Amino acid sequence: MASFKPTKIQVYPKLGEKVTQDTLYWKNYKAPVQIKEFGAVTSIDFSPVTPHNFAVTAFTRIHIYGPFSQEPVKSFTRFKDTAYCGRFRSDGQLLVAGCEDSVVRLFDVSGKVALRLFKGHTKAVHLTDFTSDRYQILTGSDDYTCRLWDIPNATELTTYTEHTDYIRCGVTSKLNRDLFITGSYDHTVKLFDARVEKSVITMDHGQPVESVLLYPSEGLLVSAGGRHVKVWDLLKGGQPLVSLKNHHKTVTSLALSSNGQRLLSASLDRHVKVYNTTNYKVVHNFDYAASILSLGLAPDDASIVVGMTNSILSIKHRKNQEDSKEIAGQQRRRPSYRVFVKGKNYVPKQDDYLVSKPVKEHLAKYDKQLQRFNVSKALDTALGTYIRFRKPEITVAVIKELDRRGTLKNALAGRDERGLSQLLNFIIGNLVDARFTPVLVTAAEMILDIYQSVIGQSPVVDRQLLRLQDLVKREIEFQKDLLEVLGMLDTMFASSLPRKEVPCSGHFEKERCKF
Amino acid sequence: MVEHGDIRVVHCGGSKINFRDPVITHDSRFLLCASGEAVKVFSTSTEECIHELRGHTGLVTGVLLRPSNHLQVYSSSLDGTLRLWDFTDGILIKVGQRFQLVAVHLPQSGDQMVEAQELSAVLSGVNPNPAAIAFGRGVRTCRHKDNKKGGWNTFTCVACHPKDDCIATGHEDGKIRLWRNFNHKKEYTYSTLHWHHSTVSSLCFTPEGTNLLSGGVESVLVQWRYNQESERDFLPRLGGAITHITVSPDGSLFCTSHSDNKITIIQSCVKVSAVIQGLVKGDSIRTDLMMDPRSKALVLNGKPGHLQFYSLQRDKLLYNLDIVQQEYIHESGLQQFEVVKAAFDASGSWLATVEERHQKAAELELNLKLWAFDEQTQSFVLNTTISAPHDAQITAMCFCQPTDSQTTLLVSTSKDGHFKAWQLAAPAHTEGPSWLCDFVSAYHGLVPECCSFSADGSLLAVVFQEVVTVWSPSTWELLTTLSQPPGAVSDLCFGRLSCSKYLLGTTASNLLCWNLLTCSLEWTTSMDVRRLVADPLSENMAAFCYQSGSTDLFVFKPSEPRPLFSHKAVCSGKVTQAVFAPREEMLESCEESSQWLNRSQLYFLTQQMVNNISTSAEEKQNENVAMTPFYLLLGKHRQQQQEHQDSDSSLWAERTLLQTPAHVLPSTSYLCSMFVQSLLISVSDAREEKAHAEEEMESEKEEEDSEEEMESSRSKPELAAAAATESDTPALTKAQARELRRVRKLDHSWLAGLLDS
C-alpha cells in the first residue's frame, strides 16, 4: 500500500540576477539620503582622516558634510563663479578648489576665507590636488596647461604645456612627491615627473578623458573617458591591460573600494557599476534617478555618495551589524531547546525493547483535501490570501493537479460573486506570467464556459472579465511584436554567418547541405 | 540460408499472473496462480516462486484445489487437458483429456464436498458476460435475473454466501446488490450497497460469511460487514485496478490480483504482507527494451508513470522506479503522465527519462528527467527535471557511449524539428552538478527521427527523414550527410569494434550500410527490417524482418556479406523491441552458427511475453546450475547411470520385451538368454548389484502402502530417462507406468537371484 503522493510544486528558477557574495555586500545599504544642492554636483572628496567628512562641490559652493549629518558641517561660498574639484590634503586640514574664473583657492577646513589665492591660469581650472609632500599643489586648466604651485609662497613652480586640449582630471602619486598624472580632452593620459619637468609616459585612451584613478600600489592606473574604462600597467611603461565597455554613455567618475578588490564606475547612463579587479567582470550594478557626475566611496565602504546632474546628492549608508541584530531580536521568542529534546536523548538500556513509532507524514492542507477528493475545498485553500500573493506557484500547482485529475471544472463551478472575483483576480494577476500561462489559460477558458450564463448579473465580475479581455488583447499584441523582432534577428544572424560548404563525396548523395 | 536446429527461442518470462483468480491453499502457506502455460506456486510469506507446474501446451485457464485432497490441484488449459498436480512437490499426477476448457469451477455446497466425477460438469465456454454464472443453488435464478435486468445495469461479478441463502452481484454502475431468498421462487428481495464510483470488478465472501469484499478500478479493497452494511473498511492505493479477490479457506489471508500483473497478499484486511509482481505490460511498451548496465535487469515502462526493472534470470520484478512522482488517479478515460522514453548511459550511472501527457485541447506536457545512480541507496535519485525540453514529442534519445570521457552528453530529437544536446554542467557553488542544454540544431526544418552515437563517441548521426546527418559532438559541426532515397530511414546503428567504420540504417524496404571513411554506400539489401540491434560486445548485429505475418531473424556482421545466422519465423507477429544482454561469463561454444551468442544473449519482446534465443549448450548449462551438496552426491551418480544405460540399450530391450504382444515374440528360451545377457552388461559390479537388490526389496514393501511415493534410487533415473525419450509419444498413464515398473522389478529381482545362484 503506497502512501499518498503530495502535489508536486514546480520549482521555478529565480528570475533576475543571481545572489552572490557581491550582491549581498553591495545591497547591504540603507535607503539613500537625498540632499538638494544648488547645482550639478561635479566633485565629491572624502577627508582622509576620521571622521571622514566629505567635500561636495556644486555650482559656486563647496559643502562639507559629516558622516551622519544631513546638514552641511561647513560651507565655502566665496567663489565668484562655478567651483570645481574641492580636495582635501592628506592630513585633512586644508582644502583646495579650482574655479571657473581661473583662480585656485586654498582653504583651511576650519576657516572661512581663502588662505591663499593662486593666480596664473587663464581659463577655468578643473583639476586641483595636493602632492604627497603636502607643500605643493597641482592644478590643471582649460588653457591646456598644468602647473605646480608652492603653498607657502603661493608661487608657481613649473608649467607643463604638453597637452593640446582641456585638462579635466588628474591625480598625484601618494608614494612619490614628484609624480602626478593628468588626463585631458586630447585623448591622452600623461604621467609627469617634476624632477625632469616633463612627461615620462603618455597613454592614448582614445576618447576625451574624464577621470583617472591610481591603485593604492600605484602600479595600475585606471582611466575613464567616453564609454570606456581602461586599465593601464604603469610598471610596464603604460601598457594597456584591459578595456571595459559596460556603460552606454560617457563614464564620468571612478572609485576604488577600500580593500582594492572592487572598482566602481559612474556614468551619465545613470548606473554605477562594480567590477571585480581580478577578472574585471561586473559583479553589481546600482541604478540612480539621473545622470551621475561624481562618485565618492567612504573608507571601509561605509557610505556611497553620488552627485547627479539634477543637483541631487544621494548618500547611502551601510547597514550596521547592530541594526540587523535588532530585527532578529524583535522576533517572537521560541520555545526553549529543552522542550524539543524532551525525551529524545534517552539512551535505551540493555533489556529495553524499542518500539519504533511510525513516521507521520506531514501533508499540506490542500493535499489532505485532495486526498479526500474535496476538490472545491482544495482550490479554496490554495486561493487563500497568503498563498495567493506570496506563493502563486502553489495555487497554480493545485490548479494543474485538479486539471490532471479531470476535476477542475467541478472545483471552479458553483462559486458566488466573491469567490469568483477572487479567482478572476488571481488569474488576471498571473495570466501573463510565462511560467503560469499554460495552466491558467485552461482555467480561464473553463471559467468562461461555466459562468457565461450569469454574465451581466454582477458589475464586479463583469468589470474583471473586461479587464481580462483587455489583458489578453494586449498580451497578444506584445507577442506579435516579439515574434517580429525574432524574425528580424533570424535574418540578421543568417546573413552574418559565413557560408560553409559541407564536404561531400560519394555519388549516392543527392542532397547538399548549406547553412 | 541454413536453418540451425540447435538454436531455438525460449520463452523466459513475463507471463500474466493475474489472468485468473489465484488460489490459496488450506494451510495458507502457498498461493497458486495460472501463468501462461504453467501454474506457479508462490509462498505467501516470502513471495518466492517455489514450483512451476509445467506440462500444459496451451494457456492455463483455471486452477482449483482438489476438495478431497488438499495437497492436490487441478488445472485446466486451452490445450484441452485437465491435469492434477501435487503442488508441494511439483509433480504431475494425472492428465485428463477433455474438450477446450475455458474455466474450471468446483461447486462446494454447504458441508457436502463434490467428488471428482463432477468434473464432467465443468462448464465449457463461459459466455462473454461471466457474471451470468453462479454456482450451487443460484444458477438458474441468476440467469433469470440477468435477462430481466440486463442492458442498463449489467452484472460484472457474482458471489454466493457460503451459509446463507444470499447472492451478491456487482454491477457496472458501481453498485453491489445482495439478493436473498432464492430457494423460494419469485419471493426474493434485494438490498443495494453503493461505494464504488465505477464498475465493481470482483466480489468475494469470507469463508465464515461475515464479511463481503469488493474491489474495482479505484484500487481500493472495501470490506463490508454482512448484515451491517453501513460499516465498511477500506484499504486504499493497492496498485492497479483490482481484477480478482480471493480469500484463504481459513479466512486469515486475502489476496487481490491487479491489472498491473500483481498479486497482493493482505493479512486480515489491515496490512499488506506480500506483493508478488510479474512483468507489467501496460497498454503499450513505449520505451525501448533496455538493459540496466549495473543490475543487468531488463528495463521497460511498467505501471503508469513507473519504470520497471525486471530480472530475467529469476523472472522477477526487482523494483519499480517512480518516474512521474504523482498520485495516480484511478479513473478510466483520464489522460495520465506516461513514461515514453528512457535511456541509460554506458556505465549505468545516469538514466534519462521522458514523460508526457497529451490532453486534447491543451498543449503537450513534457518533462525530461535525469537520474543519477546513488551508490549508497543503490537506486536512482532525481538530479534534474527539465520541463518542456522540446516543443513537440521527443522521438529519440541517446547517451554518448564512451565510459572514459569526462563529459556526459545526451542527445534528444523531437518532432519540432530540433535536436538538442544536454550536458552535465559543472557544479554550482551550492548544489551538485545539473544538466543544461548545450547545443540546439535543426536541418532544413525536417523532423529528426532517431539518433545514434558512434562507439567511441566521436560521431553523432541524426536521421532527418531520408537524410542521415553526421555531426562532430566536440565542435558541433555538420560533417557530412548521407542519403539513399527513396524511403525515410527509421532505425540507425553504428558498427562496433572492427566494423566501427560502418553505419547501418533501415528504411521501409531496405537495409543500408554506409562506409564512413568513403562516405559512400557499401552495400544494401532489400528486406523489411523492423528492428536493428547491435551487440555491445561484438561486431554482430541482429535484424528482425517482418515478412508475411511472421518475423525472421538475421544476425550478421556489417563487414561480411553472408549472415552468420538466420532463423525463419522466430515468432508470429511483429517484434518491435529487442536487446542484447551481455553474459556474465563468456560461453565457450565452438560451433560456428552459435558463436554469436557466446558473449551476449538476445532478448525480444512479443505480444505475449519476453523471449530469449538460446543455444542447446546453454540449456545444458542451465540444468547444471544448481551445484548444491545434494546435487554433488546424487546428481553425479545419476548422470553416470544415465550414460551407462543409454550406452547399453538395456532399456530398449526391456521395453520391446514388455510392450510387444506375446504372440509376435520369438520363443521364450531364445529371449531369456538375450535378456540375461543385456543385464550382465549393465551390471558390471556384482557387489553394487547386491546392494541394489536389497534396496529394491525394501522399496517394494514401501510401495504397497504409499502409492504416491516414488521409486527407489535405482529405478528413478530409469523412469526419468523413459519419460525423456518418450516425451513425443503419448505419455503413459500413471497406472500403466506403475504396472510396468512392477513387472520390471519382479523380473529383475528374480533374474538377479538366478545369477547369484
Automatic annotation (TrEMBL), chain A:
It is found in: Nucleus, Nucleolus. One of its GO terms (cellular component) is nucleolus. Keywords: Nucleus, Repeat, rRNA processing, WD repeat. Ribosome biogenesis factor. Involved in nucleolar processing of pre-18S ribosomal RNA. Required for optimal pre-ribosomal RNA transcription by RNA polymerase I. Part of the small subunit (SSU) processome, first precursor of the small eukaryotic ribosomal subunit. During the assembly of the SSU processome in the nucleolus, many ribosome biogenesis factors, an RNA chaperone and ribosomal proteins associate with the nascent pre-rRNA and work in concert to generate RNA folding, modifications, rearrangements and cleavage as well as targeted degradation of pre-ribosomal RNA by the RNA exosome. The keyword rRNA processing applies. SMART domains: WD40 (SM00320). It comes from Astatotilapia calliptera (Eastern happy). Its main location: nucleus. Part of the small subunit (SSU) processome, composed of more than 70 proteins and the RNA chaperone small nucleolar RNA (snoRNA) U3. May be a component of the proposed t-UTP subcomplex of the ribosomal small subunit (SSU) processome. WD repeats lie at residues 118-159, 244-285. It comes from the Eukaryota. Pfam families: UTP15_C, WD40. The keyword Kinase does not apply. GO terms for biological process: positive regulation of transcription by RNA polymerase I; rRNA processing. This is U3 small nucleolar RNA-associated protein 15 homolog. Residues 345-491 form the U3 small nucleolar RNA-associated protein 15 C-terminal domain.
UniProtKB/TrEMBL annotation, chain B:
One of its GO terms (molecular function) is RNA binding. Residues 687-733 are annotated as: Disordered. It is found in: Nucleus, Nucleolus. Keywords: Nucleus, Repeat, Ribosome biogenesis, rRNA processing, Transcription, WD repeat. SMART domains: WD40. Gene3D superfamilies: YVTN repeat-like/Quinoprotein amine dehydrogenase (2.130.10.10). Pfam families: Beta-prop_WDR75_1st, Beta-prop_WDR75_2nd. It comes from Astatotilapia calliptera. Residues 695-710 have a biased composition (Acidic residues). The keyword Repeat applies. Its main location: nucleus. The keyword Transcription applies. GO terms for biological process: positive regulation of rRNA processing; positive regulation of transcription by RNA polymerase I; rRNA processing. InterPro entries: Beta-prop_WDR75_2nd, WD40/YVTN_repeat-like_dom_sf, WD40_repeat_CS, WD40_repeat_dom_sf, WD40_rpt, WDR75. WD repeats lie at residues 53-95, 193-234. Signal peptide: none annotated. GO terms for cellular component: small-subunit processome. Residues 289-609 form the WD repeat-containing protein 75 second beta-propeller domain. This is WD repeat-containing protein 75 second beta-propeller domain-containing protein.
